[in-house]
Amino acid sequence: MSLFPHSWPRTDGDPFDSQLMTEDYYHGLLPREDIVEMLEKNGDFLVRMSIPEPDQPRQFVLSVMHDESVKQEGIRHFCIQVSVGGYMIEDGPAFDSVVPMVNHYLSTKTSITKRYSCPLSTAVTRRLWQLKHELIHPEKKLGEGAFGEVQAGKAFVSGEIMKVAIKLAKMGSITKEQIREFMMEARVMRGMNHPYVVKFYGVAAFQDPLLLVMELVDEGSLDKILIKKHLTMKTKTEFCVQASWGIEYLHSIGLMHRDIAARNCLVNAGKLKISDFGLTSKGTEVSIDPKKKVPVRWMAPGVMATFKYTPKCDVWAYGILCWEIFSDGQMPYNTLPPQTVVEQVRSGYRMTFPESTPAAIGRIVHDYVWQHDVHRRLTMAQISEWLEKVTGMHRPGTAATPEDRRISSRSPYTSPSTVSVNSDRRRVMDRTQADKESKKDRLSRRSCKSSKKVPHKKNGKGRAPRIVKKTRTNDE
């Protein structure tokens, strides 16, 4: 029975078996990657719905672990045919519903195929993240996503009614590849749990449309907020720090976001959350299809050349995000066409931050985030650590140390002249100590100069070679 007045009518393309819908071993649209994790022992089985081919009806599929010793290769998938006599597999007996058919094979231990022995033994039931459509109620359209509408609404999750955001994808209006991408987004979000990453509640995939349910972050996307509201420097800096924590977390659990930008950050009650995981990939390197549309203005120069994406590419995009934040949502590289952006960035051009930007943040982005040499580019963990030092902000669950309190006693949103980066160790250090060491060196050189009796002979002319100090420009 539904808790909400809204109903989700079935489409003509949906296979329908009212008795099957009530069974916990029916999983609806389920990617094969999930099936591998669910079917562990010989005889484990579930019933699912196939991902549709263009202009073809969807079918029920019985997936069974046939040989656990070879894991994924040991799983067999049997299309459930619908004939005049009812539901059947291959040339087996027909039944009025899938449920009595499954019960028959379970009770008799009969192999479901005559080609080899493949009996059923244990039904694999639904997981908590697999939600029913009748427990989800859309209320108001928020906008359009890559696959369809995004709506605000309510859902019954973990025993309580919660305000949620709902992504809808109509299977009849998107491609098979887009369906896979939608389900993969739900898959990668399942393992996330962080205060600065949008929370995933579940996916409803038992019928059309597909629904991805997540927490409602109702102030809206960061790109629009930056344009509409006049944010203080304090708020902008906090957003940069919060974004660094969110991205660092993703990297720590083996994920690359691959689309870091203000448009993919949501804001609520002064808190920024990383969202939109449609391009997110597992691992530390993924190849990019050069034929597919990519966010060029947020792309690192290495990706442009090799079409390989690594976590350090997220770091580069994070620098563009910081520029967006301090530039009040302006388009990166302004009106330059994409191809010109590629050429300029690969040749060394870097955008200049607005003068109001804390100089320390502008410096770290220019020198160590937008660093062409990927080995000198900081990791997100190093960036987060550095930002915590210069702002005095503490990630949730951590307490301020005496050193933190000393740093935060300064104005955290101006550029402390004492902050620099040690390029050899690529870690943040306090320039005050460096200044002391430099002063000590100067005093030592003066002492040597006043007491020297023999001139240097490094250039053969009785004097040391002249050293010219290079001045760094903004675009180096």
TrEMBL record:
It is an enzyme of class 2 (transferase). Residues 423-441 have a biased composition (Basic and acidic residues). Residues 136-387 form the Protein kinase domain. One of its GO terms (molecular function) is non-membrane spanning protein tyrosine kinase activity. Residues 442-476 have a biased composition (Basic residues). ATP binds at K167. Residues 409-422 have a biased composition (Polar residues). Residues 394-476 are annotated as: Disordered. Keywords: ATP-binding, Kinase, Nucleotide-binding, SH2 domain, Transferase, Tyrosine-protein kinase. Gene3D superfamilies: SH2 domain, Transferase(Phosphotransferase) domain 1. Pfam families: PK_Tyr_Ser-Thr, SH2. Residues 25-120 form the SH2 domain. Its EC number is 2.7.10.2. It catalyses: L-tyrosyl-[protein] + ATP = O-phospho-L-tyrosyl-[protein] + ADP + H(+). The keyword Ribosomal protein does not apply. The keyword Nucleus does not apply. PANTHER family: TYROSINE-PROTEIN KINASE. Belongs to the protein kinase superfamily. Tyr protein kinase family. This is Tyrosine-protein kinase. It comes from Bursaphelenchus okinawaensis. The lineage of its organism: Eukaryota, Metazoa, Ecdysozoa, Nematoda, Chromadorea.
